[in-house]
Design the sequence.
């Protein structure tokens, strides 16, 4: 019984310490944005991502890829069908490029960005 009595304050102290540490969150600075005018097309953001990646600016490339993907996802859909995901193949190519970038595979990322540029350009995006 004594063991339990002495162990309880120790467990409570460790739990309080763990909770205090979990309240501290790490806030990362925003990714650098590509230098493009407002209203640029998704293909412009893809070209900016390609240039940033070639220059070794992975953060800017990631930001440009996110912006291109967001602009392609911004679409009109009939009422009641807003839960249907987009079937645009360019979105998948951009997602794969982002995964390659996260894996630090620059060659594959560049290839996927080039494919996404061709796809977006063919769609007039």
Sequence:
């Amino acid at each position: 019984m004594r063991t339990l009595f002495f162990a309880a304050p120790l467990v409570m102290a460790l739990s309080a310490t763990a909770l205090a540490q979990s309240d501290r969150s790490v806030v990362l600075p925003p990714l650098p944005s590509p230098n493009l005018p407002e209203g640029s097309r998704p293909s412009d953001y893809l070209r900016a991502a390609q240039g940033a990646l070639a220059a070794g600016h992975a953060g800017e490339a990631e930001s440009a890829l996110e912006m291109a993907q967001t602009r392609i996802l911004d679409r009109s859909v009939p009422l009641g069908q807003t839960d249907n995901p987009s079937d645009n193949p360019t979105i998948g190519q951009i997602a794969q490029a982002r995964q390659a970038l996260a894996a630090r595979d620059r060659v594959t990322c560049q290839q996927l960005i080039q494919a996404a540029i061709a796809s977006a350009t063919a769609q007039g995006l």
DSSP finds five helices and no strands in the chain. Confidence is low (pLDDT under 50) at residues 10-14.
